[in-house]
Amino acid sequence: MASKGEAACQKCINPDCAAEFDCSQTLVKCPKCGELLDIVYDWNKANPPEHISHFARRWAGRDNRLDFSGVWRFRELLNFCPDDHKVSIGEGQTILQQNDDLAAELGMQPGCLHLQYEGLNPSGSFKDNGMTAAFSHARLVGATASACASTGNTSASMALYAHACGLKCTVFIGSGRIAFGKLSQAMDFGGHTIQIRGDFDDCMRQVQDVCTRLNIYLVNSVNPFRLEGQKTIMFRIVEQLGWRVPDWVIVPGGNLGNSSAFGKAFAELKSLGLIDRIPRLAVINAQGARTLADLYNDHNLRWNDGRVDQSVIDAYYADLTAKNFSPHTCASAIEISRPVNLKKCLRALDVCNGVVLAVPDEEIVDAKALVGRYGLGCEPASAATVAGLRHMLGNGTIEPEETVACVLTGHQLKDPNVTVTYHKDNMGPFSNPPVEAPNDLESIIRLMQ
Ligand SMILES: *Cc1c(COP(=O)(O)O)cnc(C)c1O
Ligand SMILES: [Zn+2]
Fold first, then answer.
1. Which protein residues touch ligand 1 with a CB less than 6 Å away?
2. Cα separation of 133 and 188, whole Å?
């Protein structure tokens, strides 16, 4: 593998194909069998450190742009392109917030609950971790134009990085399915936006064909380089826990890129001997977009050493098509019914002894209000993790003294409409609406009591 002395190559995840391609090629699926591609490393050439704590030394290095990046600080673990091609705008400066107040509210022991707030990224979501890697690869291959289908955050992140590297970019969105806080970013950053009459899954299908026809660089999470950047979210969690691995990582599941990346991160850390055990992974769907939960829990679909039963997936999707099904949830970032990384996610669930759960929107918005009250706030999709955690504590899947890291994928201000509606319209037990007062001092004073 890894021809010409390179440390990395692209490899088909189908074990019966396992074709390899070097990183100078732009591919979003295996040209031989159509399956997803992985980035695999020749670790002797990639040169990872002997101890994972080695990376901590770079943390203070603000004068080196790669050390300063919360992604590229770990560059030996995603060693697919030379340093001079790497793009960085300060992504990954995110924190793991130990949150004992929320833990108490959920009945957990102090010190056990941590919230990894990825809203602190330059465009306000975890997508920047992936985009910095994808655009570094785009520069490596000399791409001049990029595109994505988006529920919002991918477009904001793409537009920001495209702007930073001087690439053109086009965003494909479904009509009425995007939070305007997110779209406003893409428009502000100069992204060319095309609104398709359809949902995210329709956009995803169209953009793949558009990119192939017009030779445009696709930055959705079918792009295997994106997932390499997203591995670093897990590296940072381990780092912030003092190089210890949590018992559980909980992540919302949309297109399943993040969950896939997390499983790969832990598999690689373990195989390199940099960690001694792998945490369990919980992937949370919204009930109105529950493809993974259905396939994993009800149809028992498994990774099966790479031989996933495609007929189960085909039958499930045929049924969605027959019902003319379109996913619906207030958590727009996970309103996806045909997740492109499904198989890689099944692999992650296999590696991490994972569980999958679907939670209703009412629980998502309540959990979001709790994160707002006790923590740094987040967007609806991110709060699905806390809603899922509550269920898993309730049914004993997670014990109150286990350490848990919930990945809060996006910033609180991404989708203010959901928040305002929740509070103003008294939609749940944590609603906190404004109180109306007449324009009169004594009346106002009375309301202050
Ligand atoms: C993209 C996104 C998700 C879904 O992540 P996948 O990797 O597609 O499963 C969840 N939350 C937010 C805020 C997102 O932007
Ligand atoms: Zn293949």
1. 125, 127, 153, 221, 252-258, 333-334, 379, 381-382, 409-410
2. 22
